[in-house]
């Protein structure tokens, strides 16, 4: 039987979360997915980056941010001065929406227990929300300002910055993104 309570998932650990994601049929995306995309990076990171959803490359490989947006994310991580042990990368939803459309609210909600359990087990100080979809999963309809940190219950700090894919076509945004990062270095340094 599927485990969907966050506390049970956390108790059972990463392997069971992975198994549950692999077998999940809680939204329509399981009908079109090739590979479910779970995470990459450290299992005890200071910083967790939360993307939107797998794209074509990620659906083919099962690895988050392995395409063009991933190159920009790597550049951001380097600019932040993080080493491989310092960070992990996950997505708001684990299955690719057809034609890369935005995830639906019901899809975000179906995947939320996995996201919450991943965050609890990873236990980061800082959660970087890469754009609006990740914000939806964490902020219950409230909008955060770009680059303005939001501490949450003494557990972690949320920081919303631009999604790396938004930097592909708007190169001018890179400087803006870098200044959002510069203003917040104290969070992870
Ligand atoms: N965009 C995302 O939000 N996540 C990925 O894994 C790839 C592209």
Structure in words:
Residues 38-185 form the Uracil-DNA glycosylase-like domain. It catalyses: Hydrolyzes single-stranded DNA or mismatched double-stranded DNA and polynucleotides, releasing free uracil. Keywords: 4Fe-4S, DNA damage, DNA repair, Hydrolase, Iron, Iron-sulfur, Metal-binding. GO terms for molecular function: 4 iron, 4 sulfur cluster binding; metal ion binding; uracil DNA N-glycosylase activity. It is a single chain. With 189 residues, the chain is an alpha/beta fold. The chain is 40% helix and 14% strand. The protein has a six-stranded mixed β-sheet with strand order 1-3-2-4-6-5, with helices on both faces. It is globular and about 45 Å long. The chain has one domain (6-187): 3-Layer(aba) Sandwich (Uracil-DNA Glycosylase, subunit E). The structure holds uracil. Uracil binds next to loops.
Write the layout of secondary structure elements.
Blueprint: H1 6-12, H2 14-23, E1 40-41, E2 47-51, H3 56-61, H4 68-80, E3 87-91, H5 105-122, E4 126-130, H6 132-139, E5 150-152, E6 156-161, H7 166-169, H8 173-182
Parallel strand pairs: 2-3, 2-4, 4-6
Antiparallel strand pairs: 1-3, 5-6
Bound molecules: uracil.
Helix and strand element order: HHEEHHEHEHEEHH
* Percent of residues in β-strands: 5-15%
Q: Identify low-pLDDT runs.
A: none
Q: Which fold name fills CATH's third level, the topology?
A: Uracil-DNA Glycosylase, subunit E
For the record, give the distance between the C-alpha atoms at the N and C termini, rounded to a whole number.
Answer: 43 Å
- Supply the number of structural domains: 1
Would you identify the CATH H-level superfamily?
Uracil-DNA glycosylase-like domain
Main sheet specs: 6 strands, mixed
Q: What's the CATH class label?
A: Alpha Beta
- Mean pLDDT score, rounded? 96
Order of strands in the sheet with most strands: 1-3-2-4-6-5
- Determine the oligomeric state from the structure: single chain
Helix content: 40-55%
Q: What's the helix count?
A: 8
User: Measured on Cα atoms, how large is the radius of gyration?
Assistant: 16 Å
Bound molecules: uracil
Broad structural category: alpha/beta
| Overall spatial form | globular
From the 3D coordinates, which CATH architecture would you assign?
Answer: 3-Layer(aba) Sandwich
- Give the strand tally: 6
EC number: 3.2.2.27
InterPro entries: UDG_Type-4/5 (IPR051536), Ura-DNA_glyco_family4 (IPR005273), Uracil-DNA_glycosylase-like (IPR005122), Uracil-DNA_glycosylase-like_sf (IPR036895)
Catalytic activity: Hydrolyzes single-stranded DNA or mismatched double-stranded DNA and polynucleotides, releasing free uracil
Protein name: Type-4 uracil-DNA glycosylase
């Amino acid at each position: 039987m599927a485990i969907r309570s966050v506390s049970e998932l956390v108790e059972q650990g990463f392997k069971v979360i992975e198994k549950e994601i692999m077998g999940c049929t809680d939204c329509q995306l399981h009908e079109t997915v090739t590979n479910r995309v779970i995470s990459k990076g450290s299992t005890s990171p200071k910083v967790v980056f939360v993307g939107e959803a797998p794209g074509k490359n990620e659906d083919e490989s099962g690895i988050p941010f392995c395409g063009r947006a991933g190159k920009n994310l790597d550049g951001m991580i380097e600019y932040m001065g993080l080493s491989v042990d310092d960070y992990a990368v996950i997505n708001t939803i684990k299955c690719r929406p057809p034609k890369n459309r935005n995830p639906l609210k019901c899809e975000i909600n179906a995947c939320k227990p996995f996201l919450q359990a991943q965050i609890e087990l990873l236990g980061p100080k800082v959660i970087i929300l890469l754009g609006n979809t990740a914000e939806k999963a964490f902020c219950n309809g409230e909008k955060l300002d770009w680059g303005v940190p939001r501490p949450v219950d003494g557990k972690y700090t949320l920081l919303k910055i631009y999604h790396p894919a938004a930097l592909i076509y708007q190169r001018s945004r890179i400087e803006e993104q870098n200044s959002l990062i510069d203003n917040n270095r104290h969070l992870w340094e």
